Amino acid sequence: MCTLEKRGGLFILTLTGDDQHRLNPTLISSILSALSKAKAQSTSGSALITTAQGRFFSNGFDLGWAQSAGSKKGAQERLSQLVELLKPVVAALINLPMPTFAAITGHAAAAGFILALSHDYVIMRRDRGVLYMPEVDIGLTIPDYFDALFRGKIGAASTRRNMLLRGLKMKGDEAEKRGIVEAAYDSEGEVQEASVRMAEDLAKRKWDGDVYAEIRKGLYPELCAKLGLTTKAYATPRL
Q1: Which reactions is this enzyme annotated as catalysing (predicted)?
Q2: How far apart are CA 85 and CA 133, in angstroms?
Q3: 150 contacts 126 by C-beta, under 8 angstroms
């Protein structure tokens, strides 16, 4: 499950417990509900930080839940269901009217990496945790909106190739060098402190949230098309 805490203008969304935070219908629904609450309560001085307790940020879809369907066909149907259930979460983050930060203090794999990458900024711990897309290793294809997110967020084709076609596990320093994460730090505390500092710095700019979200969507037209998001024109000049 997850919790949502409001600290001044900051919303802190935390995946709770010490498990792997695998994304099943219950957790996905909880995250989507938290994002909806943050959006409803947002102001011009808001920002969102998503983090997690334990050794994992998220280890992706709950394959155990999918396999518990009892047959190969049932497992495939449940996995397809998870793909569709996560799409509104990615859409909600891309459409959220505030800056967003993923504070990664553990592993972020597969759909868990996608969850992190859906934020504007990713801050990572360098001494523990990797970014990893294991689909080629476990025999799964990549959903179309995952592909679009990768193309929109990771500029170097060679980096995308190595992560998707080689199953490369990338640590914090390398991810920072490749521009996937904003910064990497030595401890969980430093990641959390840096995330709050960055979020507060942007929140105090008091940008119009709707304008911010529309500019963000304009950066990722292919992803927005896959997610069914449309853009709108806003004009709230502060000159």
Answers
A1: a (3Z)-enoyl-CoA = a 4-saturated (2E)-enoyl-CoA; a (3E)-enoyl-CoA = a 4-saturated (2E)-enoyl-CoA
A2: 19
A3: no
pLDDT in tens, 96-150: 999 999 999 999 999 999 999 999 999 999 988 999 999 999 999 999 999 999 9
Domain of 130, in residue numbers:
2-227
Residue at 179: amino acid letter: G
Distance CA 142, CA 79 (A): 12
Give the CATH number of the domain where residue 125 resides.
3.90.226.10
In b/e form, how buried is each residue of 77-116, taking b as 16+ CB within 10 angstroms? ebbebbbebbbbbbbbbbbbbbbbbbbbbbbbbbbbbbbb
Task: Give 183's contacts (C-beta < 8 A, 6+ positions apart).
Answer: 123, 124, 176, 194
Alpha-carbon distance of 164 to 133, in angstroms, equals 6
What's phi and psi for 187, nearest 5 deg?
A: -145, 165
**In the block, residue with structure tokens 């402190």:** 193
Q: Each residue of 166-197: pLDDT tens digit? A: 999 999 999 999 999 999 999 999 999 999 99
238 within domain boundaries: no
Look at residue 239 and tell me if it is in a domain.
no
Q: How many domains does the chain have?
A: 1
Q: Is 188 helix (H, G, I), strand (E, B) or coil?
A: helix
Task: Provide the token pair at 175.
Answer: 């991810």
Sign of CA dihedral 192, 110, 218, 91: negative
Domain annotation covers residue 219: yes
Strand partners, 10: 7, 47
Rounded Cα–Cα distance for residues 114 and 170 (Å): 14
